Amino acid sequence: MGVSNGGKAMYRIKDLTRAEFTSIVRGLAKAEKMQHATIVVDVSNLLFGVSSKVKAVAEYLFEMAGSGLTIRPVCDNNIRPSVKQATNKRRAQREKARSEEIVLRREVRVLKRRLHQESLTEQERSDLVEEIGQLEKKRRRKETASNAPTQTNFNEELERELDLLSAKSINDAGGSVLKVVTAECQADLYMARQIQIKEAVMVLSTDADIPTLTGDCCISINGFSQTKIELVSTSKVTLENAMSHVIRDKGSKAKLVDAEQPIFENVVDNRLRAMMMLICGCDVYCPGLKGTGIATVSKHINTFKETSDDPQNETKLFEYLLEIMKKEFKPRLKEQNHEESADEEARKVVLTYIDALVFEPTNAINEERTYLVDAPKELSQYCKDFAASDTKIIPGPTILECKGVGGKAHPFLAADGHGTCAKCNHTVCSYCQGTLGMDTSAYCLLCAATESLVPTLETEAPEDAVQAKRTKLLNDGFAGAKDLDSDEVEDVFEALEFMNKYRNESMDEDNVPFPLYASNAMDDEVGYRLLKRCVRHALDSKCPSLEDKTATLILHGEDIGLRIHSDIPASMRKGVVYKPGVAFTETDVLCCQCTCHCGSQDDERVVCVHNFPLIFLLMLLLMDALAENILLELAACMRSNIWDTAVWSDDEVKSMKQYVVTLAEAAGEDMTSVNLEETSIVDLLEKFETGTQGRKEWKQRCKSKPKPGDHCSIVDIGKFESTATEAKKRTSRPSQKNPLPCDSLDVNDETDVPAHREEDASGDPNYIDIELLIQASGCGKVLQSNPIGWELIRMRSRKQRECLQIDTSEIISKNNKFTKDWEEAFRVARKRTYRSSDTQMDNLQKRQHIDLSSNPTPTRVVTPTDELVQGPSPVTPSPPKKRIRRPGCELPSRMIPITPTEQTEQKPKKKIGIKCCKRGCNNNRRDNPAVKFHLVTSPKNPPKSSNPKKQSLINNAGAVLLRQELMDRALGPSSRNDTTRKCYICDEHIFEQVSKSTSVKLKDDKSINVTFKLVVPVGAGPKSTLSHPTTLSLGTGRDRSIRKRLEGKDDEDDEEQIDEWALCVQQMSEQVSTEKDITPINPAVAAAANIPLKKGNASEFICDGKPFFHATPVTTTAAAKARKTDQPPTVQPGRVSDSEIKRRTGFPNEKTMLSYIIVACNGDINTMKQRQTSLTWYEEWFMVFEYVWNRSLTRLQDLSKAYGDVNKTDILRILDAKLDICWNARENWPMFASFEEDKALQKKKWASRYDGMRPVMWDMTNISAYAFSNADWQRLTYSSYYNENCFKSGVFCQPCGWMGVVDLWTGGVSDSDFNRRAGYLQKQQRFQENDLVEIDGERRVIRFLNIYDKGYRAKMPAWQNGRQLVLQPDFKDSDKRFNRNQTISSASVASDRGGNERVVNVSKRAGLISKGFQPNADAIRFNKVWTTWSFQANFMFDKVL
Questions:
Q1: Position 929 pLDDT exceeds 70
Q2: For 943-1090, where are the E strands, in sequence order?
Q3: What pLDDT is attached to residue 485?
Q4: Burial degree of 18 (CB within 10 A; 0-12, 13-18, 19+)
């Protein structure tokens, strides 16, 4: 508070910049020969001026020390001096504001009730709404004024925050923040002492009492701005001296402003300064002299100087002002029966207040007591707290005790004035009293609040009074009615009135008893919810076990029962523990009690949800250990013969056997095969004489639950089991013959999948193969599109090519191979086939290719690509000189002359062996090793079974029909019935699929006609154009000219040149346009150029899992169900429009989708073609993308129907396989773009803002989840910020546009805890240490700059992991204003982070993610969808930055 209007007595230096201010502080410190330029800061003052948050205050101090200054924060003691009446005044003002706020709230409630219940005109309603709005504004102001900004442990919290900021370490500018000091009394006097003894240069406080009491040597920083700084002092000379240290620039606006009333200037006596403060009003006497301010005091001083003979005598001036101040207290003292001694008593009062100002201790807590002046020799009783060890205490003026606020009484001087509460007769000071309306009587604040909120019986009907309603609630036994405020009393009364009315109208309350439930009745539907809640409480990880509890055996009639007491914690309320108890027998619950609101107490008979968990916990204890221990003790007793078993009756023995079996089953033993009639009790207990391993095995099956505070990734949890599932696991006892695995116990999980398998994600991506395969697939334009993923592939492929030094010829060779592989993949995507095993594929190769030792290269198809792989010229430079030869094609004799030596060394020709049996074809295995030969299959022998299957007969008939048709078309009709000859047909013929029918005789002598689809060669006679020509056509004149040139007939080129020509023509033929209308090359020219040509169309009829020649029956019965492999693919490459692709998968077009598949498979076409079902590889990929996008097909059953009734388990297997491939690709790729890539691909604005830095923007987002029935999962996943159960994860983005996410965590984790434990900061540290940047010839580490939103506490974790940096917007409390730098900085960061908000939107754009985590979903699978989708989005959408 300081001095009332004390600023008018201060000289000021205004508009200092931070640099000018720093130069002043350092200059003054140097002039005073101080070691450090220290500033003492009033922390309590910062709470009002900067923020009430500890973190904001710590950051303010840390930022202030950044200029190279040493900051010493000083806090007030929690116990304020009793003489400081300003503290009592503020406390009373807050209490008055609180009472007024409650009154206003009640008025608002009344008006709102009128608004909703009464019939009002439009004008009346409008006026009422306006009045409610005005009252609400006034109420909110009072509510704000009633809150205290400080907290009890503020000193410790500030120390901790400063440690987190490392503020106490000396920064680069030489500044630091010292340890927080707690003053013994007030921070103001401690700071004044620091200035007085030259330990500090300035103080930071807006209170005027510090420079006023300290003297002219003190300079105070007035305000909290970091840009426009203002200094104040009571002396002009002091500020002029400070200005002399300023190095002024042309733009400097600093100026010295004179004081309006410099009454403290050149005043040396501290007591005289205290007198002036007392007259104006200060902390020890807030009102001051009535009607007197700074200007009036100045007039009094001027009058004294004009009339006194010694105007400079400060002692006389003190006495002069003392006489004036006594006038304030004389009238009150006379009223208090001090007529004769009023003058003397008034003098004592004034001097006591002066002592309270001057002799307040200036030391820190637990230090030796010091003062601004010499220690006091004597003090009045009122100031005894300030006494030194040798100070004498005298009675002084009269002291009274005020009732105070909140039970905190405080002393005050009777001369201040006081009153007596009209209701409780307690003495109250002038601050702690109030009035009621027109009643001018004094009331203490407690009585005033009570009277204003609870009107007297004369003004309001008794039944409507709040106190009367409260009394009625207490009489009706309403628990907690004493603790309800007035609003809550009215709300409860309204609710009870509604309930009573509803009960009276709908049912007779007497007919609704609360019975004691029998145990066997709880299986009814009416008790299911109660049992479910009981199990939930019992399985809560916070619930203690009964193993250390004591149960009491009771006898209820002829039944034996138990009485158990234990603690049951509340699931979602911290620190709340209920104490239930239950007494029960085998069939009945006898009585219950519980301390919860619904629990039974005294004479009540209520069963709550906390009673039955005790019974369930007893059952779990029996199964875990108690049953086994009982049996061990029973076995020991039986072996010791301590009981006389001869007296047991047959019924008792039978009953005991049954109980032993029950306990044994509870202990985990299989007792299903035990014959009780033939087995004795001793035999039943034989297993328990030395212990058992059953319990150990059983406990291994029970998965341990996480602790209540164990927040982690959902991958670590694995499966979110329901309470019912967990209870079934804990209580089920599998038999030994058919043990039930733990994972199979969840009968409710429809999407259960095998245990998660983490595949090896090691190895760097092959960017070269990815780029070449994309180009070979005809999707080269995708690499030029805008998504960041394709730009990175281009850069990394080029860099990888340079590192590996791959030449152009190898690139062309790879491109040619990829082109053929892609054509094969394209072909198999057009027809569904069975997914064969490895053994089946080996057998098929043996049947089709005959010779597996040779691996002939498939004949080359001349299908040039759209564009060249690399280089401006279509002709690739020749490789080292060697003969050009392709398998199956020999160079002309003139191009490769054979020497006599070579002729003599030639091996004898092999026999022809296999040859094509089709008429007119001369291909054989010896002369044409590259040609494939297909065996004409022979029909199998008829089934030997007397009862063959119908399908077996049909297949056999199809094989016979196929053999006949093949022999007819190959050798003629005469060979149609030849079934013994072994024949082959080469693949250089034209094949077709024809339909033929035949009669099939069934086992009951009935015949049916079956139609088969047969793959056979086209029927062609010797003279048909489809047959092989007997002579080779030389083509047109142009063809003959090219052939002569290649064969060297027109000129005499040397052999090397001929070889080069042949190679160039061959390579040019592979790089020309792919248009279909191109003129085919002449066979003679192709032979001269050594270019193999494709002959025939056999590749169109190759079917995986079947021989080349096969017969497929066509079912004509309408009711028969077609096989999945007979159905055409739902989607085929090249036959789905781009708009349909975008609608169903989210990809902009098919080429982008295929390119991403290549990226995910790391350029490996075999990985791309991997299948899990009979669907084509294209269908499986399309299905996964469509399900993740989740727009057109949102459920598994929808996918099953759309893709030909695929089993749901198969769909999940497909989804897991493809997600594993994409997840491995994501793990193989670097998590971030390198420094070089980021700078090359980002926009110019980022380069100008973050030049030489490695920024990455992080944000947190939530993925909604369902409300879990398990208490642990509910507690771990519930987020109070999002007000829902959810998962949380971090999303990042770099300026180049590359985005990504980390694993999902449980929603209850705090942002700070996530930042510390998620592990992404460690990954960033490893990345920055590996991605070194060359600067000035030296490879250095460029640290990450993490850009967060406000509220993240990540500075310390980031610094601990590679000294990473953090950038956040500035933030302040409500109604606090930013300074200039804070506004610009916050706006800049907020503008930059706008793109990151779009990244969060993209990361949740997939429908499967946006609809959240659904019941029965698999957590690991969902996490893979989350992580792989962000990776996929880098290749789907344009850059967000």
A1: yes
A2: 984-986, 991-1001, 1007-1017
A3: 62
A4: middle
